C-alpha cells in the first residue's frame, strides 16, 4: 500500500430499493468498527439523493455509476454529472466494463465522461480491464495501457481514480491473484507517471470479486490503493469487513 489513502468503493449496480438503503445505512450507523480508508457507495441513480441523506453524519461518500459527457440536453434516460453533484454525489464511475459491453462505450467516450465529471467537481473513477481472451493471449498490459491512455481526461490527474477490473473476474467469483494485480498496477503507475507528474496522485483500485476473505491480501498488494466492490458491497457486514481490512 502506498501513502495514498485507500478508497473502499461499493458499486451497487442495478440493485437496491429504498428499504435496502435503509437497512444498509442502519447497519453502517450501528457499526462499531472503522476503516483506515475512505468509504464510498455508488447506488442506483434513484437512490443517490436518498443515500446522501441516509449517510448524513457517517464517513461515507456517495457517487453515481455513470454520467453523460454533456452537462444537459435531450438524452432520455441519461444523467449528467452536474445532476449527480447537485444530489450531493462527489464521485462517479465511468467506463465500467458492463457499460462498455452493454452500451458499446469507447475509450474516447469514457474520456469525455471523465472530463464532464471533473468539470462538475466530481471525482471520476475510470474503469479499465482485459477480457479472458486478451489475458490468455498475453495482451493484458497492452490492453489496459491503451485503455488507460484513451480514457484519461486531459490535464491534471490529481482528482482522477482508476479502477483495474479484469472483466473475467467481475461477478464470477474468480479473482486475479496478487501477482497478476501487482503486475498490472505497477504498469499502470508507470504509465501514469510518464504522462504527467500528477499521475502519482491517482489512486489505483482493484475490482473483481473482492470479498471479506480476499480483501486483506488484495489491499496489501503493492500499488493497490483501494478496491471497487460489486456484489459484496450490498451486504453491510461484508462491506464493513472489507473496509476493516485496510492496512495501516
Ligand atoms: O464495480 C464493481 C465490479 O464490477 C466488481 O463486481 P463484483 O465485486 O461483483 O465482482
Automatic annotation (TrEMBL):
NCBIfam families the UniProt entry points to: tim
Signal sequence coordinates: none
Functional summary from the UniProt entry: Involved in the gluconeogenesis. Catalyzes stereospecifically the conversion of dihydroxyacetone phosphate (DHAP) to D-glyceraldehyde-3-phosphate (G3P).
Catalytic reaction annotation: D-glyceraldehyde 3-phosphate = dihydroxyacetone phosphate; L-erythrulose 1-phosphate = D-erythrulose 4-phosphate
InterPro entries tied to this protein: Aldolase_TIM, TIM_sf, TrioseP_Isoase_bac/euk, Triosephosphate_isomerase, Triosephosphate_isomerase_AS
Annotated residues for binding of substrate: 11-13, 171, 209, 230-231
Coiled coil: none
Cell compartments where the protein resides: Cytoplasm
EC annotation from Swiss-Prot or TrEMBL: 5.3.1.1
Stated family: Belongs to the triosephosphate isomerase family.
Enzyme class, UniProt record, top EC level: isomerase
Enzyme active site: 96 (electrophile), 165 (proton acceptor)
Origin organism lineage: Bacteria, Pseudomonadati, Pseudomonadota, Alphaproteobacteria, Rhodospirillales
Entry keyword set: Cytoplasm, Gluconeogenesis, Glycolysis, Isomerase
Species assigned in the record: Elstera cyanobacteriorum
Gene3D superfamilies, sorted: Aldolase class I (3.20.20.70)
Subunit structure: Homodimer.
Record-given protein name: Triosephosphate isomerase
Amino acid at each position: 500500500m502506498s501513502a495514498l489513502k485507500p478508497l473502499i468503493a461499493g458499486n451497487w449496480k442495478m440493485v437496491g430499493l429504498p428499504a435496502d438503503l435503509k437497512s444498509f445505512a442502519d447497519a453502517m450507523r450501528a457499526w462499531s468498527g472503522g476503516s483506515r480508508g475512505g468509504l464510498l457507495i455508488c447506488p442506483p441513480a434513484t437512490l443517490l439523493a436518498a443515500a446522501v441523506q441516509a449517510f448524513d453524519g457517517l464517513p461515507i461518500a456517495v457517487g453515481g455509476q455513470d454520467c453523460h459527457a454533456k452537462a444537459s440536453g435531450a438524452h432520455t434516460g441519461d444523467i449528467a454529472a452536474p445532476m449527480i453533484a447537485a444530489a450531493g454525489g462527489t464521485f462517479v464511475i465511468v467506463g465500467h466494463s458492463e457499460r462498455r459491453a452493454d452500451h458499446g462505450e469507447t475509450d474516447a467516450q469514457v474520456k469525455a465522461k471523465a472530463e464532464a465529471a471533473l468539470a462538475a467537481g466530481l471525482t471520476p473513477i475510470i474503469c479499465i480491464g482485459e477480457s479472458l481472451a486478451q489475458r490468455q493471449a498475453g495482451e493484458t498490459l497492452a490492453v489496459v495501457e491503451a485503455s488507460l491512455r484513451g480514457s484519461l481526461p486531459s490535464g491534471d490527474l490529481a482528482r482522477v481514480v482508476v479502477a483495474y477490473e479484469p472483466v473475467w473476474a467481475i461477478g464470477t467469483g474468480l479473482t486475479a491473484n496478487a501477482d497478476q494485480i501487482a503486475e498490472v498496477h505497477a504498469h499502470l503507475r508507470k504509465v501514469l507517471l510518464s504522462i504527467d507528474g500528477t499521475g502519482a496522485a491517482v489512486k489505483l483500485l482493484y475490482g473483481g470479486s473482492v470479498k471479506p476473505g480476499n480483501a486483506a491480501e488484495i489491499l496489501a498488494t503493492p500499488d493497490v490503493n483501494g478496491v471497487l466492490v460489486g456484489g459484496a458491497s450490498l451486504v453491510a457486514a461484508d462491506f464493513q469487513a472489507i473496509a476493516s481490512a485496510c492496512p495501516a
